[in-house]
Amino acid sequence: MGILQRIYDWLLSLFWNTELDITMIGLQNAGKTSLLRVLAGGEFTIDSIPTVGFNMKRVQKGHVTLKCWDLGGQPRFRSMWERYCRGVNAIVFIVDSADREALPVAKEELHILLEKPAMEGIPLLVLGNKSDLPDHATVDELIEALNLKTVTHREVSCYGISAKEETNLDAVLQWLIARAQK
Ligand SMILES: Nc1nc2c(ncn2[C@@H]2O[C@H](COP(=O)(O)OP(=O)(O)OP(=O)(O)O)[C@@H](O)[C@H]2O)c(=O)[nH]1
Ligand SMILES: [Mg+2]
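Above: inputs. Below: predicted complex with guanosine-5'-triphosphate.
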């Protein structure tokens, strides 16, 4: 590549490339790491290893780079969620929609986090993952179970997805990329 072309590309990236910070949280086994792997163009694996601490991947979509922080969901890692959610462009809260017994704990952890003053106004995308499994909770059921109607002073959306079958992932990317226009 010629030097002029390289300077031109560099200038273009300065003006056009927007990087968004996204943090993915949720209880263990919800599918955060699986979702991020698939969004980044990788293969879905059934034997995904529980995340110790955190994991970061960049997802490039046109002129927008999504810098995604995927945090561990086991109880011992939940206290660090707040630190990684401060100042981000969006929080993605993922639940296993087929594990109805885990929803009360998920609701509690979500609301504990959102009540923190530093979380005020940060857009929230709630994803009910594993829609490929039988008897999964619908979006309406998730809105109810997670008490999402009480979440105010921020943008909130809730989608049903499957990282495994790659269902509805375009909607997820569209929603995240739209945070760049705000
Ligand atoms: N059927 C089905 N299984 C899924 C889906 N997404 C993830 N899984 C499985 O769920 C399990 C947990 O996935 P992970 O991505 O490791 O979950 P995590 O939320 O990152 O868990 P922690 O890192 O411990 O917080 C793995 O066995 C995945 O294969 C999905 O859409 N459908
Ligand atoms: Mg993980």
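The domain at 3-59+73-174 is CATH 3.40.50.300 (Rossmann fold).
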